[in-house]
Design brief:
- By secondary structure, the protein is an alpha+beta fold.
- It has 11 helices and 12 strands.
- Strand 11 and strand 12 form a beta hairpin.
- Bound molecules: 2-{3-[(4-chloropyridin-2-yl)amino]phenoxy}-N-methylacetamide.
- 2-{3-[(4-chloropyridin-2-yl)amino]phenoxy}-N-methylacetamide binds next to helix 8, strand 5, strand 9 and strand 10.
């Protein structure tokens, strides 16, 4: 009996793993285990022998069962310790760098301007960037040999020999979208047309592709006074300066009569531009009353309707509002400089409706 005890207690203490331990348990106290077989022999013993052997076997069985349970717990502890040694994490390591996009200033300013004009009842219209020379020029009272065609440094689309469709151009302004909107919707009308436009020009303040927003309001009694109010509301909202002053200077565009260039109040302090204060002026847009010929080209009767129109450069507005010095930076493929001007990453909605950052 003592031999049996020593054999199992030692083997259990030395069991290498859970499986070896279970084998030992079955060998000792399983249904056909050594202890169980010995218990079956009790029946053939004398009552005296049985009286000592019975309790001793039961005690041994209990002892082996508790040795197995203790060893099982010790093996589980050792396994956990082993995992903890292997799976440690250094929470002091610096985080992995995540590349994040930013909203482009041109997109942001387009949205800001659109929202301000939406509050004044202007809808948004878009149209093709390649259009016929009729929509881009003739309809805007710029006939074939008008000097304004040459001044606009127009990109003409290539035409194969024998192709006698009307010439197409990369639009030089978004006015063709306004002509199309007049044709499609008629009067009255309040619309702004944002988008990319093209002119063959390149220096610190000109890029061959840039962005413009043109506005158009047509009704029975529209005047220059309405134009001035709308533009002053716009500048006050856009530059966040109440009561910002504007100056209208007489000018000339083929598509408006009378025409005005509009300046906003500004000053220069230590080479820094301050908008909305001082007594200098900064030219920001061109405008005027829509020429009767242009209304007619859009299918609107100039004897019944008048309208004002204006055109603003979005890129230039973005430069003025955010103090960006070189227009060409907008069209650089490396946009890391944007961060310098505080353009934050886009919040991208996730499937769960939360925000991923
Ligand atoms: C500028 C400013 C301007 C317009 C654009 C316009 C559009 C239609 C009819 C009449 Cl459909 N006018 N747009 C008007 C005045 C100025 O742009 O500096 N352009 C060279």
């Amino acid at each position: 009996m003592d031999q049996l005890r020593d054999k199992y207690i030692t083997a259990i203490a030395n069991a290498a793993d859970e499986a070896a331990l279970e084998d030992l348990r079955v060998q000792a106290v399983g249904k056909k285990g050594e202890i169980s077989l010995k218990m079956r022999e009790l029946g053939r013993m004398t009552p005296e022998e049985r009286q000592t052997a019975g309790p001793a076997l039961n005690a041994l069985k209990d002892e082996i069962n508790s040795a197995v349970a203790a060893k099982r717990a010790a093996l589980a502890d050792a396994a956990l310790d082993e995992r903890l040694r292997g799976e440690w994490l250094d929470v002091t390591l610096p985080a992995r760098h995540k590349r994040r996009g930013t909203v482009h200033p041109v997109s942001q300013v387009t949205e800001e301007v659109t929202a301000i004009f939406a509050d004044m009842g202007f809808a948004v219209a878009e149209g093709p960037r390649i259009d016929t020379d009729w929509y881009n020029f003739d309809a805007l009272n710029i006939p074939s040999h008008h000097p304004a065609r040459a001044e606009m440094d127009t990109f003409y689309m290539h035409r194969a020999e024998g192709d006698d469709r009307p010439p197409h151009v990369l639009r030089t302004h978004t006015s063709p979208v306004q002509i199309r909107t007049m044709e499609a919707e008629g009067a009255p009308l309040r619309v702004i047309c944002p988008g990319g436009v093209y002119r063959a020009d390149y220096d610190q303040t000109h890029t061959p592709m840039f962005h413009q927003i043109e506005g158009l309001a047509i009704d029975r009694d529209i005047s220059m006074a309405n134009l001035k109010w709308v533009l002053e509301e716009f500048f006050a909202a856009f530059f966040e300066i109440d009561g910002i002053k504007t100056r209208f200077r007489a000018s000339h565009f083929p598509f408006t009569e009378p025409s005005a260039e509009v300046d906003i109040q500004c000053s220069w302090v230590d080479g820094q531009l301050r908008i909305g204060e001082g007594d200098d002026w900064m030219e920001v847009l061109g405008s005027g009353m829509v020429h009767p010929k242009v209304l007619r080209a859009g299918g609107i009767d100039p004897d019944e309707w008048q309208g004002f129109a204006f055109g603003i450069g979005i890129d230039r507005l973005a430069m003025l509002k955010y103090g960006i010095p070189d227009l060409r930076a907008f069209f650089d493929s490396d946009l890391r400089w944007l961060r310098h001007y505080g353009f934050a990453a886009l919040d991208v909605p996730t499937l769960h409706g939360g925000l991923s950052r």
